[in-house]
Amino acid sequence: MKTLEGTRFGEITYKAKEVINFPVPLVGFDALTKFVVLSSDGSPFHWLQSVQEPEVAFLATVPEIYVPEYQPELPNWLRDVLQIEQDSRMLLLVTATIPHGKPTDMTINLAAPIVLNLDGKKGAQVILDDPAYTIKHRVFKESVEESRPAA
Amino acid sequence: MLVLTRKIHQSIIIGDGIEVVVLDVRGEQVRLGIKAPKTVSVHRKEVYEQIFEENLEASQNRPEDLPS
User: With contacts defined as CB-CB under 8 Å, which chain A residues touch B66?
Assistant: First the structure.
């Protein structure tokens, strides 16, 4: 077990084998290539916690909850770079931004998803060259009444 | 900044294995072709900067702000 101190979640313990390596790091954060994914049961949110810089953690979420039709075409080179096998368990995330105190103004970045190979422990942020996907996609309607699909 | 003059179909090599080719010049527009290793990401600077900004914001969220 390893320990990370000084994170915004307090002290974190993780196993070395849980660390995900990013051969293609998050845009603008080239120095950060090792992360652990912090998740809690029942929450669509995940934190990509940097192992190298304890104070850095990116909020990410599962896009299909908010945009069911989101099925971006991912570049072929990902297969090699992330060492994706036929049966690799994959996770597609998008970063999320929640203005302080305004959770209903949350946006997600559909233009640059984060692709994780959970088995191979590899990750990449991919910039999609598709104008259909915006960097600041609002997930909640601006009106007070939210239309939600029936459970 | 290093400044080089190139003609159409000429190229420059950056480092070990990155090649930038001038494909076409029309008025104010230049078309470039880029050959780079798979792990080298190539982006239009405006897009890169916007995504960097967004990543920066995503790194500044507070756990207490998450919608329940």
Answer: 43, 45, 59, 98, 103
Distance from CA of A44 to the nearest CA of B (A): 10
**Would A150 be classed as within a structural domain?**
no
Token couple for A114: 């984060």
pLDDT at A137: 96
Q: Which residues have C-beta within 8 Å of that of residue B11, sequence separation ≥ 6?
A: B19, B20, B21, B22, B33
* A130 occurs within a structural domain: yes
Residues B42, B50 contacting (CB under 8 angstroms): no
Model confidence over B4-44: pLDDT tens digits? Answer: 999 999 999 999 889 999 999 999 999 999 999 877 878 88
pTM: 0.86
Where chain A has pLDDT below 50, the residues are none
Query: Which pLDDT value is given to residue A143?
Result: 59
A151 in any annotated domain: no
| A25-39: pLDDT as tens digits | 999 999 999 999 999
Of the candidates A24, A96, A109, which has its C-beta nearest B41's C-beta?
A24
Q: Where are the domains of chain B?
A: 11-61
Upper half-sphere CA count for residue A11 (Cβ side, 13 Å): 4
Among B35, B50, B55, B56, the residue to mutate for chain A (most A Cβ within 10 A): B55
Q: Answer yes or no: is A58 within a domain.
A: yes
What's the number of domains chain A is made of?
A: 1
ipTM: 0.89
Calpha distance A117→A101 (Å, rounded) = 33
The domain that contains A118 carries what CATH number?
A: 2.30.290.10
Residue A66: domain span:
2-142
